[in-house]
Amino acid sequence: MEFFCGTSHKDLGEMICKRLSIDPSPMKSQFGGTGDEVDSTCKETHVEIGRSVRGREVFLLQTGSPTDVNNAIMELLIMAYSCKTASAARIIAVIPYLPYSKQSKMRKRGSIPAKLVAKLLAKSGVDHLVTMDLHTKEIQGFFDFPVDNLRSSSFLIKYIQEIPNYQNSVIVARRPESMKRATSFAERLKLNIAVIHIDQSKEADIDREDGRCSPPPSSCSHEGLASRRSTSGEYVRRRTVSESASATASDETGDEFRGVKIVGEVTGRVAIIMDDSIDEVDSLIRIADCLHARGAHRIYALATHGIFISGAVERIEESVIDEVIVTNTVPQEDFVKRCDKIKTIDISPLLAEAVRRIHHGESMSFLFRNISTND
């Protein structure tokens, strides 16, 4: 077995290798040049495998780097293709956080980048994928080879049980779509659940204005078209005024706070916001402010992947959130140094056991023994 670590998360690779009692296989990556001479004007990626892999089983560790995701993908593809052309027997990609997994649905006139990433991995020579907590489980259908979608729920539940007075907690689903996962956590912890509803009227308006749902205009006079546009514009203005008045009335009654509505009781309780990943924190902070206004005693945010795009860490530090707990599927050292509220859970034992079982041909069902179908 050969275990190569990409540059996106070398610390995690070393922890996995330490648990497997092996050393990382030698490999050299270069960004910004080819060969021995580095040209700063050239942004190509160069990968050199430092050991023969002919007839060997190869594991490649790479994750979606929050700072340079496209370089991480390209490096992984070249790593896999290098092993394939070097006659490796089997290539298993270990990608704790799969890049572009949130772009798994067609939106407006875009595309589905998650499927493109799956096709690229297959073409580069990858035979098997090990990942963790995909944004949607249906993404596994994009791949032409086996996918092991591991779950971090057991690690997160263990952390929740260490929260002081966790029996007085309420699991908060960040959006209605994540209610099944939140319910699964709540049932195992014997806790209540609350669901967040955020006003999505602006996004709905954009989708309606996109025009794809409307039939093409029939042949008619320019005056008729102008009249219809005028009527449509007047309707939109009336609807906007009506919705604004409705939102104001809702705010005055206290049912809604900054466009956020909570279904469930959180007063005097420890609120635990659940999600699969945290990247932008605008909606998260709005939810936390709403929970705080509704009388939540303490506020925690739990997620598997902590991406934290630009400015997110500073906003978390200034927010009413008490702790943000994420796993180390992506590097967290810099984020932890900049924000005392961010805590990290190590998931290297799970990944190391998955690698060991795949290498020895053992069943993976042991890793899912306490996992609900909704996790």
Order of helices and strands: EHEEEHEHEEHEHEHHEEHEHEHEH
The first-to-last residue Cα distance is 31 Å
Strand count, sense and closure of the main sheet? 7 strands, mixed
Mean pLDDT: 81
Q: Beta-strand level of the residues, as a percent range? A: 15-25%
| Uncertain ranges | 34-40, 202-210, 219-254
The assigned structural class equals: alpha/beta
Count of strand segments: 14
Give the % helix: 25-40%
Rg, nearest Å: 24 Å
Shape field? globular
Query: Spatial order of the strands in the main sheet?
Result: 10-9-8-11-12-13-14
Number of DSSP helical runs: 11
Notes on the protein architecture:
With 375 residues, the protein is α/β, with parallel strands linked by helices. The protein contains eleven helices and 14 strands. The strands form three sheets. Strands 10-9-8-11-12-13-14 form a seven-stranded mixed sheet, with helices on both faces. The chain has a five-stranded parallel sheet with strand order 1-4-5-6-7, sandwiched between helices. A two-stranded antiparallel sheet has the order 2-3. Helix 9 links the parallel strand 12 and strand 13. Helix 1 crosses helix 11 and helix 2 packs parallel to helix 3. The radius of gyration is 24 Å and the shape is globular. The two termini are 31 Å apart. 34% of the residues are buried. About 14% of the residues have low confidence.
